[in-house]
């Protein structure tokens, strides 16, 4: 729960905030009077300098375990939001390949739907694949807030392990245009801006992006010809093109008696993606494609001091209409040499032209009231109502396309934020409600007979977060939460293609503990240091995971199975010398242990339960030790007045980890090796930042880099970006 600084408030808090200033002025006045009384009655008061905390600093001082990623220094780079976040402690963004590839976002051991993503505090659960963090350029965001474990009530979501909130830029009048070109025929363009008429309050804000890449980088594989694996060789990816286009525009008024902000807007986006591989690189596709488009009208309203001082209200409403199209109609089998053989069934995997029409209504509202200058109540309510209609000309009689597919979720949060001197606490409770409509097979014979069913689930979570300042720049934090995560539409309703429904799914739950501290100090007014360390504990049950034991691709489903205990530590040190030389190093260790004694699997004869051979061992295919090192140099006044340059070196490190269960032995060949990725970024600006050019080299040493299931990522790549920025 965030405590906002109010611009209008009862006189009491204004007096309280001014007490230190008044006391300082009084003391200086008394001294001046004592020393000058015998000479004259003139009183001299030294100038008083008032320093306002930045919004990022205020967020860091909240009781929650939160990191704030400032994006301004990366505006000239071609990095996307995912690439920025993977530099943060506890975060790994694991991608299946290049631009637009599927990715798995992991935070302190939690991944997938256990984490929630927000755009300006608005849930992005079903915004469509066009609006994902790997599509957003760095210069679209003002900052990114990373909440680990406990999530503020104000965000209002069923996050189990944390949340990412991307805050877009709030400049009143500006224009930011950029374009980059790079290896593998990669192109990225961005357009951001705003116009505000200070007299009338009329305002327009807009953001847009375009991404394209052939992703035809080289990979090392063992091509399969027939049933024989050929010797390893280097080949190019050949069916991996990707493009995305998206934008947001908002029109409204600001700073009116009836509203601080009132905007109507529209989000729209689309993408097209070739599918090159399956889960592993031995699965090669040459014609399979998927596409998506979304149209989302929006309404935003915000008013501080509504009716009475200290009562703040904001509301967001939207309707998301998304269309997904998946095509697999080429009856061939491909290998990495682009050789083909005929395949029965008229498809590479399963013949389909699946179309999904998703509609989701979303309403989120926050109400906050200051009982006292040290105590503030918050209430949040979020409701989403998701409906899906599907069709496939290849499977016109599929019952999944005619039966109900609906999922409604409600979250209600209540919190109290209090200050007791140097101690600040946040106590909260959250309600999670779910209503789902689906169908089940009620037949007792071989002939299927389906009936509509409805599922209702209710859960209550709670927690406490606190922070204490031992010194003005030394902060301790601790938090605990009993959290729930409700099933998502794909998990509960299936997709009618490769994933079948499971109407019996129950929410995931976890007990999360975070303990940490921050300390900042300065040496000789030139050397500035910031240090931070955190301990995490997660005890999670009823994990929702996709069952992989089915022999038929149409038989996969999500099930509740899995207890996991996570302990870990993470730390970071930052250094800055006169705002010229800066450096940071962070390291994260997470011990994620499988505590599931028995597993449930499936085969052609039905469900089976057996002892879990991985019980007591690390969960495979998840990195446990990783870190980053950054070193940068800022050179102001280069090339004359208004010129500046910036050079940065970045290193990413991942310790080797097991792809399959580690108990198979030390000689287990299924290892993802230790990896070092080096990058160099340099940019130059003239005209006080108006004209900018940047060059980048990623994976400088052309190392073999891997992520999920040993999927090889791009080798050495180069990018050049030009950017034009004006601001009133």
Automatic annotation (TrEMBL):
The TonB-dependent receptor-like beta-barrel domain is annotated at 300-700
Specify the superkingdom: Bacteria
The secretion signal range is 1-32
Species assigned in the record: Sphingobacterium arenae
Q: What's the family?
A: Belongs to the TonB-dependent receptor family.
Q: Which InterPro entries match?
A: Beta-barrel_TonB, Beta-barrel_TonB_sf, Plug_dom, Plug_dom_sf, TonB-dep_rcpt-like
Protein name, please?
Answer: TonB-dependent receptor plug domain-containing protein
Lineage, broadest ranks: Bacteria, Pseudomonadati, Bacteroidota, Sphingobacteriia, Sphingobacteriales
Subcellular localization is given as: Cell outer membrane
Topology relative to the lipid bilayer, per the entry, is: Multi-pass membrane protein
Taken from the record, one Pfam family name reads TonB_dep_Rec_b-barrel
Q: Which UniProt keywords apply?
A: Cell outer membrane, Membrane, Receptor, Signal, TonB box, Transmembrane, Transmembrane beta strand, Transport
Domain TonB-dependent receptor plug residue range list: 60-163
């Amino acid at each position: 729960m965030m405590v906002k600084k109010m611009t209008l408030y009862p006189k009491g808090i204004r007096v309280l905030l001014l007490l230190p200033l008044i006391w300082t002025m009084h003391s200086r006045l008394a001294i001046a009077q004592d020393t000058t009384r015998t000479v004259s009655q003139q009183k001299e008061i030294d100038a008083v300098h008032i320093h306002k905390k930045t919004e990022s600093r205020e967020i860091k001082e909240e009781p929650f375990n939160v990191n704030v990623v400032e994006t301004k220094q990366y505006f000239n780079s071609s990095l996307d939001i995912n690439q920025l976040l993977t530099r943060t402690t506890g975060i790994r963004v694991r991608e299946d390949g290049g631009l637009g590839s599927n990715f798995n976002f992991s935070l302190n051991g939690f991944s997938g739907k256990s984490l929630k993503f927000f755009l300006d505090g608005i849930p992005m659960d079903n915004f469509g694949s066009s609006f994902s963090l790997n599509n957003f350029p760095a210069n679209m965001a003002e900052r990114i807030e990373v909440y680990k474990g406990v999530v503020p009530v104000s965000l209002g979501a069923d996050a189990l392990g944390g949340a990412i909130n991307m805050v877009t830029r709030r400049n009143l009048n500006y224009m930011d245009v950029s374009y980059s070109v790079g290896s593998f025929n990669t192109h990225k363009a961005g357009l951001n801006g705003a116009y505000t008429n200070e007299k009338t309050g009329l305002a327009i804000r807009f953001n847009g992006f375009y991404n394209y890449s052939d992703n035809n980088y080289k990979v090392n594989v063992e091509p399969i010809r027939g049933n024989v694996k050929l010797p390893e060789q280097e080949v190019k990816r050949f069916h991996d093109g990707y493009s995305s286009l998206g934008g947001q525009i908002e029109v409204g008024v600001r700073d009116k008696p009836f509203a601080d902000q009132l905007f109507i807007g529209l989000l729209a986006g689309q993408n097209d993606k070739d599918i090159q591989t399956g889960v592993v690189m031995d699965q090669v596709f040459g014609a399979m494609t998927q596409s998506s488009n979304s149209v989302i009208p929006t309404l935003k309203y915000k008013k501080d001091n509504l009716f009475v001082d200290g009562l703040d209200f904001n509301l967001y409403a939207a309707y998301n209409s998304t269309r997904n199209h998946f095509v697999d109609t080429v009856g061939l089998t491909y290998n990495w040499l682009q050789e083909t053989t005929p395949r029965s069934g008229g498809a590479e995997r399963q013949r389909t032209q699946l179309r999904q029409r998703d509609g989701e209504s979303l309403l989120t509202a926050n109400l906050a009231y200051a009982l006292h200058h040290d105590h503030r109540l918050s209430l949040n309510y979020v409701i989403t109502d998701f409906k899906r209609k599907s069709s496939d000309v290849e499977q016109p009689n599929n019952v999944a396309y005619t039966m109900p597919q609906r999922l409604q979720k409600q979250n209600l949060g209540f919190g109290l934020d209090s200050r007791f001197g140097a101690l600040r606490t946040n106590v909260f409770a959250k309600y999670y409600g779910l209503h789902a409509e689906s169908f089940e097979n009620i037949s007792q014979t071989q002939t299927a007979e389906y009936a509509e069913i409805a599922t209702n689930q209710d859960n209550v979570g709670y927690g406490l977060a606190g922070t204490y300042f031992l010194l003005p720049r030394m902060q301790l934090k601790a938090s605990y939460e009993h959290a729930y995560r409700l099933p998502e539409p794909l998990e509960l309703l299936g997709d009618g293609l490769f994933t079948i429904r499971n109407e019996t799914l129950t929410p995931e739950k976890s007990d999360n503990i975070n303990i940490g501290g921050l300390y900042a100090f300065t040496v000789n007014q030139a050397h500035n240091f910031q240090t931070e360390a955190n301990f995490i504990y997660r005890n999670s049950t009823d994990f929702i995971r996709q069952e992989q034991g089915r022999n038929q691709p149409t038989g996969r489903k999500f099930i509740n199975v899995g207890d996991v205990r996570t302990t870990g530590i993470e730390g970071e040190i930052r250094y800055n010398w006169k705002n010229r030389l800066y450096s940071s190093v962070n390291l994260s260790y997470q011990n994620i242990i499988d505590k599931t004694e028995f597993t449930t699997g499936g085969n052609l004869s039905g469900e089976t339960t057996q002892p879990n051979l991985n019980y007591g061992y690390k969960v495979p295919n998840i990195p446990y030790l990783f870190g980053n090192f950054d070193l940068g140099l800022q050179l102001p006044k280069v090339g004359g007045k208004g010129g500046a340059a910036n050079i940065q070196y970045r290193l990413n490190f991942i310790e080797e980890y097991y792809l399959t269960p580690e108990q198979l032995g030390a000689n287990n060949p299924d290892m993802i090796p230790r990896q070092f990725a080096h990058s160099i970024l340099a940019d130059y600006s003239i005209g006080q930042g108006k004209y900018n050019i940047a060059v980048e080299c990623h994976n400088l040493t052309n190392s073999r880099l891997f992520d999920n299931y040993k999927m090889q990522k791009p080798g050495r790549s180069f990018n050049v970006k030009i950017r034009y920025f004006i601001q009133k």
